[in-house]
């Protein structure tokens, strides 16, 4: 009786969720997926039934990472609240059948619609768009077989009112661009392969009937991102040809992201000359061949620039200061800067300079002072070596950028030069990075708690100080300047990699532990840190960075052995919010102990392991998939035989596909000659976000799309 009385008293003194104000409840409900709100939560009581249909919750419906949604749920959702939806994002819903798109026609008031990554035929697109008269923003894929002649007059009328278009091309085509006569923002993603599945070479010429001219007269933003391949370059030139004839007067963002060599032509030179005469830009990104050796930057005019990308350009620091930063007069508006692979950007000139020479700290200081509001900065893929001058270290200068949210640095740039001068190199630094025969060395025992780590590493270390000053940093990448992934795109797997920078040899476990000061860290990438001995710093990160959602580790420590496995397993036990995990390490053993530790990551959705000569235990993988119900992507490229890989892949799909509609499984030998054919079938969302390694900081302008 006493127990019952106590429980009754606690209930009477407790807080009833329904007693909260409507404003608080609406804020809480905004974190619940819309499908759960409409199909489940609103059926619990009358009050929630009313709140779940509030306009603030039904105005924008996001299904892009709702991996549990299926065709029936979408059908019921559109039936219940279709007329209340003004913005619908179904990007990357690759698992939904194309017939699902038919239900979008119920959303008569749609203004913004994102169908990137969805299966949409020309006829279905025509039928759907014919009913969406209020549509102003559209994102679609253009796949082989797309035929613009199948679009109805009602569909073309809708497209004529669209002002924002994002189009991903898997075949040479203008897509729906010629129909969009009111375009103000055009985003183009070129994913056309040079060869068909049958091995035939493809042409960049447009299909018959695709000769309509795009309408760019109202264009304000032009963005094009090219995947590797000459066909993509041929097709983008056709899109640019119209721009070269007449440059839109209101153009304020011009961005072209092209890997490798993309030569400048007479047409593109005319376009750039016209831009220099007639427009003032707020965002700029050009292929490196268009900038290198030209005086283009000296003639372009800028208004209030918020994004610059000079990735892989030979732009020197002198030119950067003189032609872009303009003495620091007009760059307070800049929030995102990408200097990845720009090896001379922190040196006064590049003519007689070696890539490994020390940087000129005065150039970096000018950059920091001029661009004091930077939120995203990428300095990766270059040797940015600080001199021994006190107070001029790169990390000390960057610590002044208090607004930074994402940062990418080369490993050699965080080396504490003064500390290295005082101490002789550790024995482990002298060990060659062999791939085969293992070398036995004495390993120093590192403590596993943060306090002891801090005592061992001088607290005045420049990297410790930098991490301490950037407390609100959400994304951090520390990548070796010579690192290249073993699985590049559209090419066979790389069998050998370049050795790490000499200065990177002194970056070890204590430096990794410094990252644990970033309380709000959400995404972390560490690649090519050769002096990792135990990985003890990873444990500190797992304990302190409780918001961590994305973790990518590649080539840490000696290449012949995974020295950090024990620490990694300890770390994973604390990563309750981790959703994406990518591991790239030779000789990685994905066994029972690893998957048992990984099972503690209850929020994990995507797993990718790339390991030359790596092994896996099929039973452990199956047990992991059974325990982690949220996992919808499992990619493993290991050293196992094709038979073992195929059998495991089939077992996973057969066992879990029915309950996980979005399940995508690829298990394949890393060095197999057909790897590129397998990769081409991976959904673009997974391929671009996790499977392929790349630096993602300042890769695109912020808020480029929703």
Automatic annotation (TrEMBL):
Q: Which Gene3D superfamilies match?
A: 1.20.1280.50, Ribonuclease Inhibitor
Domain (F-box) spans 14-61
- Swiss-Prot/TrEMBL GO biological process terms: SCF-dependent proteasomal ubiquitin-dependent protein catabolic process
Annotated Gene Ontology cellular components are: SCF ubiquitin ligase complex
Pfam families associated with the record = F-box-like (PF12937), LRR_FBXL18 (PF19729)
Which InterPro entries does the UniProt record give?
A: F-box-like_dom_sf, F-box_dom, FBXL18_F-box, FBXL18_LRR, LRR_dom_sf
Name of the protein:
FXL18 protein
> Taxonomic lineage of this organism?
Eukaryota, Metazoa, Chordata, Craniata, Vertebrata
